[in-house]
Amino acid sequence: KAGVTQTPRYLIKTRGQQVTLSCSPISGHRSVSWYQQTPGQGLQFLFEYFSETQRNKGNFPGRFSGRQFSNSRSEMNVSTLELGDSALYLCASSLDTNQETQYFGPGTRLLVL
Amino acid sequence: KQEVTQIPAALSVPEGENLVLNCSFTDSAIYNLQWFRQDPGKGLTSLLLIQSSQREQTSGRLNASLDKSSGRSTLYIAASQPGDSATYLCAVLAGRRALTFGSGTRLQVQP
Question: Stretch A79-101: mean pLDDT, rounded?
Answer without folding.
Answer: 90
